[in-house]
Amino acid sequence: DIVLTQSPVTLSLSPGERATLSCRASQSVRNYLAWYQQKPGQAPRLLIYGASNRATGIPARFSGSGSGTDFTLTISSLEPEDFAVYYCQHRSNWPPCSFGQGTKLEIK
Amino acid sequence: QVQLQESGPGLVRPSQTLSLTCTVSGDSISSDDYYWSWIRQPPGKGLEWIGYIYFRGSTYYNPSLKSRVTISVDTSKNQFSLKLTSVTAADTAVYYCARWDCTNGSCYFSYWGQGTLVTVSS
């Protein structure tokens, strides 16, 4: 099974700063990677699919990059509403889906 | 606008069966383009994919849960359902239903329900 490892576990930054979140796969997942944002008490929200495609309505400050085993979610300039937990998720032949353990982005 | 809504008991006794239903609005569950999924999240922990179903009835389950899980679909009601048997406290979680989309080989959960907390306790 493919394992997704996210780093760091917690990231402490201030509004206006740039955030860089990492997701590493134990073997290649091509570009079959998605990113989600989850705020307390809410369902996850799709941000990025296909490693680099923004979902509908997602602000341009969110961008995704990478392929194979190493992926990055970048938030170019943090807004107060961006502080949340972020998950990566891959699609493979079997099992078809799994998630990383999450990165908590907190206010410094 | 696509909306999903989970419903079902919030409390289940140990060893009993957890049953939840997801009602889809704004989209047809009989669409050729999507699978319909269940995902859960224990309190304070990460996300775990449970399984998904295609409207024609084909199902795919997480191997770790496969022996206890059944997902079914009712196209006449635009609903799909989850049954998890022999529950224990480890099954306490927020349960989400979601739509599984695929684009150019990449698959992802595009729409989610709000989630429903199910507690397993006597």
Keywords:
heterodimer, A: 108 residues, mainly beta, four-stranded antiparallel β-sheet, 51% strand, globular, B: 122 residues, seven-stranded mixed β-sheet, 11 strands
Please describe what this structure looks like:
Chain A has 108 residues and is mainly beta. Chain A has strands at residues 4-7, 10-13, 19-25, 33-38, 45-49, 53-54, 62-67, 70-75, 85-91, 97-99, 103-107. In chain A, strands 2, 4, 5, 6, 9, 10 and 11 form a 7-stranded mixed sheet that branches. Chain A has a 4-stranded antiparallel sheet with strand order 1-3-8-7, with no helix packed on it. In chain A, strand 5 and strand 6 form a beta hairpin. Chain A is globular. In chain A, 37% of the residues are buried. With 122 residues, chain B is mainly β. Helices cover 0% and strands 54% of the residues of chain B. Chain B contains no helices and 11 strands. In chain B, the strands form 2 sheets. In chain B, strands 2, 4, 5, 6, 9, 10 and 11 form a 7-stranded mixed sheet that branches. A 4-stranded antiparallel sheet of chain B has the order 1-3-8-7, with no helix packed on it. The N and C termini of chain B lie far apart (39 Å). The chains are: A mainly beta (108), B mainly beta (122). Chain A binds chain B through residues 30-34, 36, 42-46, 49-51, 53, 55, 87, 89, 91, 95-102, and chain B through 37, 46-49, 52, 60, 62-63, 96, 98, 100-110, 112-115.
